[in-house]
Amino acid sequence: MKIYEKAPAKINLMLDVLHKRPDGFHEVEMVMTMVDLADRLEMSALPRNTIIITSQAGYIPLDEKNLAFQAARLIKDRYDVQSGVHIHLDKKIPVAAGLAGGSSDAAATLRGLNRLWNLNIPVHELQELGAELGSDVPFCVTGGTALATGRGEKLTKVDNPLSCWVILAKPPINVSTAEVYGKFRVADVKEHPSAGKMVEALQAGDFGAVCGRLGNVLEEVTLKLHPQVSQLKEAMLKLGADGALMSGSGPTVFGLVYKESKVARIYNGLRGFCREVYAVRLLT
Ligand code: ATP
């Protein structure tokens, strides 16, 4: 028996950090959505009580450090499943890019194993399990567009009638989310982006307003550490993107583009700066 799941990448249309909590997590407000750049997971039932992860990508851990492994172990332990699974990860989402690739794989594993093992776990319970694995996992369980608060696990669905192109560009540098949050100071934030205004713009289907409301308070930290990210964002806008922003803690920069006729020019222009460029659609 085999199950297939797609694990799409997420982008943050806005990301604000309100304060650091006594438990060490940051209280955030984020509007997140998904794009059609996705990993593909193949899950095969194993008679032996074991979890095996394989991947065509040579650069991710395949042991208990893999988030798909952790998701499988969590669901097995919690629901006392005595059979095993082989999960093959066909990675397409760049790793450590600010696109929640690992979180989306974990969420897809939870959804897939719920089906493979006929567990009938309701979605909200899958999201609670996901929150134990990482702050972005609950959102990735359902996808769509959502306002995320708390440490990212409290979700409110947002109607998003928008359809546009998204150009993703990942410079060849590694950004540590922990380092970016470690260097971030709320007092240094010049302007907090508004979650409410972004939600309004989306619900109204107002593409121009969405582009005008893009904002990420982590951008300044990452841009200071890695000037290439700043250059990439400028290039994206110069080449004609209607709006551009760094996703998550970076280093991927995305550009929103309404007109298909502009896409090739922006894509080709960015390829001069970095190898990893993708032209995809917003998932609606
Ligand atoms: P986020 O936006 O949630 O911070 P990210 O896109 O920056 O995530 P990931 O691609 O999820 O980062 O990878 C972060 C780290 O997690 C990497 O160092 C990688 O080795 C590890 N990792 C564990 N499991 C996976 C997985 N299934 N796919 C990719 N990376 C994984």
From TrEMBL:
Pfam families reported in the protein's UniProt record: GHMP_kinases_C, GHMP_kinases_N
Pathway annotation: Isoprenoid biosynthesis; isopentenyl diphosphate biosynthesis via DXP pathway; isopentenyl diphosphate from 1-deoxy-D-xylulose 5-phosphate: step 3/6
One of the protein's GO biological processes: isopentenyl diphosphate biosynthetic process, methylerythritol 4-phosphate pathway
EC number: 2.7.1.148
Catalysed conversion reaction: 4-CDP-2-C-methyl-D-erythritol + ATP = 4-CDP-2-C-methyl-D-erythritol 2-phosphate + ADP + H(+)
NCBIfam families attached to this UniProt entry: ispE, PRK14608.1
Protein name: 4-diphosphocytidyl-2-C-methyl-D-erythritol kinase
Record organism: Paenibacillus albilobatus
